[in-house]
Amino acid sequence: PGPVKDSYLNMTAILTSALLSGAEAIHPGYGLLSENHKFAEMCEQCGIAFIGPSSGLISNMGDKDAARSLMKQAGVPVVPGSGIVGSLSEAKESAEKIGFPLLIKACAGGGGKGIRRVDSADEFQNAYRSASQEAKNAFGDGRVYLEKYLNPVKHIEMQIICDDFGNIVCLGERECSMQRKNQKLIEESPSAAVSKELRQNIIAASRLAAKATNYRNVGTIEYLLTEDGDFYFMEMNTRLQVEHPVTELVTGIDLVKWQIRLAAGAKLEFTQEDIKLTGCAIECRINAENYLHNFRPSSGKVTLLHIPGGPWVRFDTALYQDYFVPPYYDSMIGKLIVHARTRVEAIRKMHAAL
Fold first, then answer.
1. Separation between Cα atoms, residue 251 and residue 189, nearest integer Å
2. CB within 8 Å of 134: residues ≥ 6 apart
């Protein structure tokens, strides 16, 4: 059936299908069960490879507060904030120490859910209850923590890839600052805001983070970058990112292929010194939304489909003509990615492709 609880979140049905078909592994994609430690653990118990990190690692990094503590210990800069706040009174006390504006964030958060910006003490109580309730509905965990609201900042993430032999490679950064409703819209690599020296500093911090967590497979470390060039750890995504194609185009490395190879026990065939970022790649997420109604998700039939082509133009989608966009899932229905020698050329190419 359509609803995710009966289909893509039905762990028992998915594992039964895998066992009956003789599948050796399950690739969880980049949503739904991709960061669900219970599902990864069930795969381990059934003798099926979960293509991603271990269930224990997913659990540890899925708890945003625990992840922040681990990064602090590893020497990775972290956004100033609190630990888990257990009550409204404790939260108010922490808020006064941090100062406004601040963010209330879900411990088990992701996808922009369970986040509230608070500009003054008057707004705090309602925002706290609202964030906690949304987190409980979305993740089954209503715990929250507080974080200093930094502005203006860039949203920079570093792609990491690690094998079972202790090799850690960073595949450069992605710029993901263009967002709406806490959801990314446009991503590019490399970032125009990151110098060679800064890139090396972020790579060094990311290698520390990967080593501290004993990371395996593919993952992403997300940072906030200030105008002064300071960067702070925000969270780690223990899965493939939606925007992975931009990294693939500038590095020439197929991340999904390497996810599968690493899950099968293969060793990385490249080192950090081999990574060279060539040109610029940009991705635009194509969403089925009604812009007249505050970009509300919009389902319906695709009556005409014309896909842009040409050298270094890539469109990742499951769309076809007469496809019916269902109401049950995320509004993203495709990803348009372009690659060119320079950022100016990439922007021009993206304009034409759109």
1. 10
2. 106, 113, 114
**264 Cα distance to chain centroid:** 23
DSSP string covering 61-89: HHSHHHHHHHHHHHT--B-SEEEEE-SHH
Residue among 174, 207, 239, 285 flagged as catalytic:
239
- Contact (Cβ atoms closer than 8 angstroms) between residue 153 and residue 101: no
pTM given for the model = 0.90
In the residue annotation, 174 being an active-site residue is answered as no
How far apart CA 51 and CA 149 sit, in angstroms, is 35
pLDDT band at 92 (very low <50, low <70, confident <90, very high): very high
The DSSP bridge partners found for residue 104 are 116, 146
Give every CB contact of residue 15 below 8 A, 6+ residues apart in sequence.
26, 42, 43, 46, 48
pLDDT for residue 137 = 87
Give the whole-angstrom CA distance, residue 116 versus residue 31: 22
Work out the average pLDDT over 308-324: 96
